[in-house]
C-alpha cells in the first residue's frame, strides 16, 4: 500500500475503516485482516465498522501462553517490531515479554521483507542472516520466535534448532475458520 510506505497513517486508517464499514453493510459477523502491520489500525477499524476484528496476534498469544514461554522474539516489519500495538497485545494476552532485534538489525529485517521477500527473492545470505539473528535473540532470552510478517515464513524454517517458530498467518487463519464455524453453527 503506497500510503503506508509514505507514512500516511490517517489515509491508511481511513481506507481500512471504510473497508470495515463495507464488510458490516455486507453482513459480516467479524473482520479478519491478514496483514500483521495493518493491525496497528485495529481499534480504529473496529470503532468505525462496529465489528470485532480478530487480531492476528491473539491466536499466537494463546499458543505462547499454552507453551509457557516467558520471553518471545518478534520479527516483522519495522512498524510491527517498533510499535507497541503488537508486542503489548502479546504481553497482555500471554504474559510473555516481547523482545526485538536492535535498531540496525530491525532495519535489515525490514529491508529483507520489502526488497527481497515481497518481490519473491529468497537469498541464502538473508536466510543465514535471519538464522544468526534468531540465535542472537535466543541468547538474549527468547524461548520462541513470532513471525509477525507473512513473508518471513518463506525464509525462516519452522521450529529451527529447538526454537519454536510461530507462524502468525497460519494460526490466524485457523482461528478465523474456527470463529466462522462458531458463528455459523451458533
Report what the structure shows.
- With 186 residues, this protein is of the alpha/beta class.
- The protein is built from 9 helices and 6 strands; from the N terminus they run ααβαβαβααβααββα.
- The protein has helices spanning 2-5, 9-25, 42-49, 57-67, 78-82, 84-94, 103-116, 124-139, 168-184; strands spanning 31-32, 53-54, 71-76, 97-99, 144-148, 164-167.
- A 4-stranded parallel beta sheet has the order 4-3-5-6, with helices on both faces. It has a two-stranded parallel ribbon with strand order 1-2.
- Strand 1, helix 3 and strand 2 form a beta-alpha-beta unit.
- The radius of gyration is 17 Å and the shape is globular.
Tell me the layout of helices and strands.
Blueprint: H1 2-5, H2 9-25, E1 31-32, H3 42-49, E2 53-54, H4 57-67, E3 71-76, H5 78-82, H6 84-94, E4 97-99, H7 103-116, H8 124-139, E5 144-148, E6 164-167, H9 168-184
Parallel strand pairs: 1-2, 3-4, 3-5, 5-6
Helix pairs in contact: 2-3, 4-6, 4-9
- The fraction of residues assigned to DSSP E strands is 5-15%
Count of discrete alpha- or pi-helical segments spanning 4 or more residues: 9
Low-confidence stretches: none
> What sequence of helices (H) and strands (E) makes up the elements?
HHEHEHEHHEHHEEH
Mean pLDDT: 91
How large, in whole angstroms, is the Cα Rg? 17 Å
Structural class: alpha/beta
What's the domain count? Answer: 2
Q: What overall geometry do the principal axes of the alpha carbons give?
A: globular
Fill in the CATH topology of the largest domain: Rossmann fold
Numbering strands along the chain, what is their spatial order in the largest sheet?
A: 4-3-5-6
Indicate the CATH architecture of the largest domain: 3-Layer(aba) Sandwich
Number of strands: 6
Give the helix proportion (percent range): 55-70%
Under CATH at level 1, the class of the largest domain stands as: Alpha Beta
Q: Give the N-to-C terminal Cα separation.
A: 36 Å
Largest sheet: 4 strands, parallel
